[in-house]
Specification:
Largest sheet: 2 strands, antiparallel
Helix content: over 70%
Shape: globular
Strand content: under 5%
Number of helices: 15
Length: about 350
């Protein structure tokens, strides 16, 4: 009978997938270590990480504080990319372009119109969101290799465009900006104040992303990622949620670009080449797709591994960087976050 639900092949395909997902989630939450389930351990790990982050700038030299600040910047950018690639199952090689949009939006607001730096954050994020929404409508009609090529074209196109409008963007010379100064009551050095500003943005971004993924939107993105046909049968509007994921991803990238401007105090087109987009995607894959820890681990990789590659071989750092990526993916095919999860599951537990 045509009225029966199991007569639809897509529905039959969706049922096992849904059951498997439910089983996987139940298995993940049933893992207990020292009497605590995985959800409680995640909160403990997050609290410990936040405590370490609050303590670190008072114990490190300014250069290391700067490095940690940049890790937070990249973590916010990778958080947005993770929404699109890890949770929505779409590919993007143009994430660095939206990072640049946020950076230039903040720089122009601060340099041309003397906008207070706190106001540049929501404006830069909104500009990137709207641009992601506009570009996402045609881009999300594509998939796979074709979508990757379109997003790559966006990243390639942006650099000459920024150089073309010299009167606004500063052209190849870029824009030099004053960094946010710490208030007198804080007693903090400039590097420490900027670090805490970026830390606050990063914490807010992760809380927002976590809330989004636990909502109806997050469930829809996961349905699209796992099985588009089954998701459409269940009433999920594919083009709407794909476009929304693209816009949300761009918004987080724009916010990261804005705080990047606070940290560096300078923007130029050559800072946002296509290499940035590729490096961000590689960092996310190494960190772990579809996990909340993946962007943090990926940010550490993006920040420190290129420098390590340069130290190992000054003549060919790109080769060393590529070999390190291959080595990490061989050891941890699901990313560093997946590797950590496997190691934790191997710890003997009391039933």
């Amino acid at each position: 009978m045509t009225g029966r639900a199991d007569a639809n092949p897509a529905t039959r395909d969706a049922a096992p997938a849904t059951a498997a997902a439910a089983t996987g989630e139940a298995g993940a939450t049933s893992v207990r270590l020292f009497g605590w389930d995985a959800a409680r351990w995640r909160w403990v790990a997050a609290a410990a990480l936040l405590a370490a982050a609050l303590y670190a700038p008072f114990q490190l030299i300014p250069f290391h504080v700067f490095q940690l600040t940049m890790v937070l910047v990249y973590a916010v950018a990778l958080l947005g990319l993770n929404l699109l690639v890890g949770h929505a199952g779409q590919i993007s090689l143009g994430h660095g372009a939206f990072f640049a949009v946020g950076a230039y939006a903040a720089a122009i607001l601060m340099e041309r119109w003397d906008t207070p730096y706190p106001l540049t954050l929501p404006i830069a994020a909104a500009v990137a969101f709207v641009l992601g929404l506009v570009l996402g409508v045609p881009a999300m009609r594509l998939r796979g290799l074709y979508l990757a090529l379109v997003t790559l074209a966006i990243a390639i196109f942006l650099v000459p465009l920024l150089k073309r409008f010299e009167e606004v963007t500063g052209g190849s010379m870029g824009l030099t900006l004053a960094k946010p100064a710490p208030p007198a009551w804080s007693g903090l050095a400039e590097d420490q104040w900027i670090y805490f500003l970026v830390l606050a943005v990063a914490v807010a971004a992760f809380l927002l992303a976590g809330s989004l993924l636990r909502s109806r939107v997050g469930r829809a993105l996961h349905a699209v990622r796992d099985n588009e046909i089954a998701a459409e049968v269940m009433g999920v509007r594919l083009s709407f949620y794909k476009t929304l994921a693209f816009a949300w991803s761009a918004m987080f990238a724009g916010a990261a670009g804005c705080v990047y401007t606070w940290v560096i105090g300078f923007v130029s087109p050559d800072s946002f080449t296509v290499n940035l987009s590729i490096t961000l995607l590689a960092g996310l894959v190494v960190g772990g797709l579809g996990t909340m820890a993946g962007p943090v681990l990926g940010a550490l990789f993006v920040m420190f591994v290129p420098g390590i590659s340069q130290e190992i071989n000054d003549a060919a750092p790109g080769v060393i960087f590529g070999l390190l990526i291959i080595a990490v993916m061989y050891v941890a095919p699901t990313g560093l976050a997946g590797l950590a999860g496997r190691l934790i599951r191997k710890i003997p537990r009391k039933e």
